[in-house]
Amino acid sequence: MPTSPRIILIGNCQAAPLGKALAALSPSLQVSPPLIVHLARPADEARWQPVLAEADLLLTQPVQDGYGCAFVATRQLRQCYGDKVVVIPNLYNKAYFPDACHLAAANGRRLKGPLGDYQDAWAYEAWQAGLSVDQALARLADDDFQHERHAQATEAALAEEARREQHTDIRISDWIAEHLWRQRLFMTFNHPSRALLHQLALRIAAHCRWPVPDPEAWRQGPREPLGGIVLGLSPWVVRRRALAFPPEVDSLGQSVQLGPEIVLGEAQHYTPQTLFETFYRVFDHSPPTGQRA
Fold first, then answer.
1. Helix axes 121-128, 133-140, angle to 10 degrees
2. pLDDT digits (tens, 9 = 90+) for 69-122
3. Looking at the structure, do residues 180 and 206 belong to the same domain, yes or no?
4. Total structural domains in the chain?
5. Distance between CA atoms of 139 and 251, rounded to whole angstroms?
6. 123, 57: one domain
7. Does residue 275 contact residue 133 with C-beta atoms inside 8 Å?
8. Alpha carbon distances (Å) from 261 to 103, 111, 240, 267, 289
């Protein structure tokens, strides 16, 4: 591999900040703009093919066969580009917010709400059962109810993280398990913190044997790169775990305007009370189908 390799990251919204972390840690790298898989279209293959061919290394999250855009599937990439494909983890963990989910709207797309396209399964179930907001919130404070619902949530989240790494070349679930309660590692279940992205970048650099003059580079910054939406921690998690970071149950989301369509606006702070009230308004306006999306 050349002393200044050209790399391309292929994946979801994690790819761009991860590329910035790698560029800061290993300044000799040439980090090209990422290929964001959920934005790619089959017609883009002709434009991307020469770019991918010229790169020295392709760092890709696992993408299954049958994905809407075939040329980004991991099997296809390996067939075309062989050993220069390195599969990295797609960071995902629901331990902090076991009720967080996506719900489908009547049009089949993800329902929008105060947390963007993130919803709360308990808010939906309580609304569907006819409970008031106050009754729904009271269940969040009911340890017996929460234990029955989430007793194995942490174990399930860590097991899912490890399962997702079964076919990756680089793994980080061990570090996540060790540090999960020491520092906040996820803003949402699929938006990792700067600290976690930094650690993954270090592991990628070690795997690829790239020099890292300053291991602390990029670790600190003025903001979270994927912190536009921040889910509040589950009150059950806060009560059950001895957290070494602020036990924040409030959320950072967006304002919601209900009309012919759901329109999301500026950043907005939500307490559990105002969050559930807004979820209920959204569900009344656009009842979910009940299907996860």
1. 130
2. 899 999 999 999 999 999 999 999 999 999 999 999 988 899 999 999 999 999
3. no
4. 2
5. 19
6. no
7. no
8. 16, 11, 39, 19, 16
